[in-house]
Amino acid sequence: MDKKQLIAKLDREGILPADDLAQLLRGLDSEETELLSGCARRKAVSLYGKSVYIRGIVEFTNYCRNDCRYCGIRCSNTRADRYRLSKNEILSACEGGYRSGFRTFVLQGGEDMHYTDSDICEIVKAIKDRWPECAVTLSIGERSRSGYESYYAAGADRFLLRQETSSPSHYAYLHPETMSLANRKRCLDDLKDIGYQTGCGIMVGSPGQTIENIVQDLLYMKDFVPHMIGIGPFIPHKDTPFADEPAGDAGLCLRVLSITRLMLPKVLLPSTTALGTAVSDGRLQGILAGANVIMPNITPPRGRCRYILYDGQIGTEGDTQEDLKRIGDDLKSIGYFADMGRGDSIM
Ligand code: 5AD
After folding, report:
1. Contact 287, 64 (CB under 8 A)
2. Global pTM value
3. Does the C-beta of 310 come closer than 6 Å to ligand 1?
4. pLDDT digit string, tens, across residues 33-51
5. Chain centroid to CA 343: how far?
6. Tell me, what CATH number does 276's domain have?
7. Which domain holds residue 255?
8. Is the CB of 71 under 6 A from ligand 1?
9. Residue 7 domain-assigned?
């Protein structure tokens, strides 16, 4: 089968043998690229229409106990200027977000054990008490099952935890010895089992990643059936061991997004900040490749200028209001619109 036939088959059947997925990932000419992204875009539009869900991210701490080699807030980066937001600061960020129309708040941070399980519960409860109609998403890394259960009981709706890679050896290359893919997957299984709308995902083009690794990730995700999948290109950070590594290829990242949409049609798929950083209209290209979520930053300035995962990260100084306006205008220019609703999973 030629690549166009493979794309048509993927569109029809939602799966391809590993070797065929690898072929599509390795490279496509412009006609094949347009065919793939067109199929993915039509699939997304058939389920979600031309709406793109908007989520507000609050980056509430850049302290992290982990030492991931790719990440700017790794614990051994002494140049990272650390901060924590208080419960009140988090609530006022949500308040501002609510007034701007946000109905999903994503609380993201490093793995910062300063916030105990009961602290996280208190924060979640306070948000849900004040805005019961809003969804709360946690993105706080690996915790115990009982911790995950307590946040869910406190009202958290969703949880994001990328597997980063589905190859144990590649996982070990990216992460410190204290971490393992097995534990990562244990967390993801627990989260889904507890009842969270669960998100996993990967970086594209991280150092040491092969096309076969990405195929493994696609097959893992097809099998896991997450509600959400975060995919963005790797971008080096100057104060990490991967400072001199090349950034991931944005074209490859777009192909991974489109293939993901065709393999898991209903999944909530953000067009990520990293993609928007890698290319200037990256987030729009992501939407046109089948993504249907955008997550602007609603962190107060004190935090957002310090929560730097990679070089050139966009949205670290801008203002939420301007950002929203620009996203709305950009989406309009391609015939889409920003949907500020909760946008729960339809799985
Ligand atoms: N480049 C791109 N993405 C990164 N992340 C962390 N560091 C980088 C980087 N250097 C991503 C990880 C993490 C998410 C919050 O940010 O995939 O899960």
Report:
1. no
2. 0.98
3. yes
4. 999 999 999 999 999 999 9
5. 15
6. 3.20.20.70
7. 30-338
8. yes
9. no
Over the stretch 117-173, which tens digit does the pLDDT of each residue have?
999 999 999 999 999 999 999 999 999 999 999 999 999 999 999 999 999 999 999
Edge-first strand listing for the sheet containing 51-54: 293-294, 51-54, 337-339
Q: How far is the CA of 72 from the centre of ligand 1 (A)?
A: 9
Closest to 38 in 3D by CA, of 233, 258, 272, 309: 258
Q: How far is the CA of 132 from the centre of ligand 1 (A)?
A: 30
**pLDDT of 2 strictly over 90:** yes
Q: Choose the residue to mutate in 57, 142, 229, 310 for probing ligand 1, maximizing ligand atoms within 8 Å of C-beta.
A: 310
Evaluate whether residue 125 is within a structural domain. yes
Q: Residue 129, class by beta-carbon neighbours within 10 Å (0-12 exposed, 13-18 middle, 19+ buried)?
A: exposed
Label residue 318 by pLDDT band (50, 70, 90): confident
Q: pLDDT tens digit string along 288-303? A: 999 999 999 999 999 9
- Ligand 1 centroid to residue 130 C-alpha, Å: 31
Number of domains in the chain: 1
User: What's the gap in Å between 308 CA and the centre of ligand 1?
Assistant: 10
